[in-house]
Amino acid sequence: MFTAIFGSVEQGIIYAIMALGVYITFRVLDFPDLTVDGSFVTGAATAATMITLGYNPIISTICAALAGFAAGSITGLLHTKAKINSLLSGILMMIALYSINLRIMGLTIDTAVGRPNIPLANSDSLFTAFSEFWGKLGIDKAFNGMLSNMGVEHVPNTWGTVFIMFILTFVIKFVLDWFLKTEIGLAIRATGDNGKMIRSFSANTDTLTILGLGLSNSLVALSGALIAQYGKFADVGMGIGMIVIGLASVIIGEAIFGTKTIARTTFAVIFGAIIYRIVLALALQVEFLDTGDMKLITAVIVVIALVIPTLRAKQKEKSRIAKRRAEHARAVKQEGKTSA
């Protein structure tokens, strides 16, 4: 059980970067961007292809994020310049990226036009490079020894992945918090809240929308690149349902931690992604469920996350109404005694 939860935290903190990207489009820009399912794979395909061709993993990961930015920007161009519906723009780009991703991965084989997957088992990645440094510190031995003394039978191979990903994810979170408070960031937020109002101040909402979509998909692609290096493979179908996972993370985090400030909301999104992966792992421990039920479990989690806040709001409203009625009844009763 501990190993399953630990693995979920490892994956959750990587998927949290993707959830931050989804947060930008769905909450900040109010844009239903389905490019995510394609740009996630674009990041994985770009990083895996470049690593296979011998490029440095850091450079490969940066290029993956830039490829995601390009994909998101094209979606923005389709919507703002070609005047295509926002939902349809994302769908069109997602479909186009499927073929593009096959082409990208096909670059690793001279005789192939497209390639559906790339194994990275024998290739160095960001995690293998960091693991060599981490292993020399002796932290794994100390933590695992402590867990063994507490009676935990199966301990993680390394704590380095969780450590480096928490640092990277929270650096991205703090940079995003800062960016959304800058003049450009505030303009992007205003574009999502009230496009007509911000245009009245001579702001170019088309450019802001394109920039927001590019930034969002760059984070999604970065997450895809890291997942590919974490799982040691990139596959053309690994992005299916990513938009639902991202939304689930955002909704769960907001329902638990609230959304009073930008900093609090991005914090909620990160831990929403981790909680989602933990809940998914625990659900798969049930005997009659298996890995083929993951999409069904995801749908159920999202439905629950959406319904519970609504029910809580209704309950609070009923409580407020009941309290007002009771206060009114007491006031009327008191007034009657005074008159008497």
Task: Describe it.
The chain has 340 residues and is mainly α. The chain is built from 13 helices and two strands, in the order H-H-H-H-E-H-H-H-H-H-H-E-H-H-H. The chain has helices at 2-28, 36-52, 57-80, 86-106, 126-135, 139-149, 160-179, 183-193, 195-199, 205-231, 242-257, 262-283, 294-339, and strands spanning 117-119, 233-235. The protein has a two-stranded antiparallel ribbon. Helix 2 (36-52) packs antiparallel against helix 3 (57-80) and helix 11 (242-257) runs parallel beside helix 13 (294-339). The longest helix has 46 residues, at 294-339. The radius of gyration is 24 Å and the shape is globular.
Write the layout of secondary structure elements.
Blueprint: H1 2-28, H2 36-52, H3 57-80, H4 86-106, E1 117-119, H5 126-135, H6 139-149, H7 160-179, H8 183-193, H9 195-199, H10 205-231, E2 233-235, H11 242-257, H12 262-283, H13 294-339
Antiparallel strand pairs: 1-2
Helix pairs in contact: 1-7, 1-10, 1-11, 1-12, 2-3, 2-4, 2-10, 3-4, 3-10, 7-12, 8-10, 11-12, 11-13, 12-13
Brief rundown of the structure:
Helix content is 76%, strand content 2%. It is built from 13 helices and two strands; from the N terminus they run H-H-H-H-E-H-H-H-H-H-H-E-H-H-H.
Biggest beta sheet attributes:
2 strands, antiparallel
Radius of gyration: 24 Å
> Which structural class fits the helix and strand makeup?
mainly alpha
Question: Mean pLDDT, nearest integer?
Answer: 87
- Give the strand content: under 5%
N-to-C order of helices and strands: HHHHEHHHHHHEHHH
Spatial shape: globular
The helicity comes to: over 70%
Strand order of the largest sheet: 1-2
> Given the structure, what is the number of helices?
13
Question: What is the straight-line distance between the termini?
Answer: 70 Å
Total strand count, please? 2
Low-pLDDT parts are none
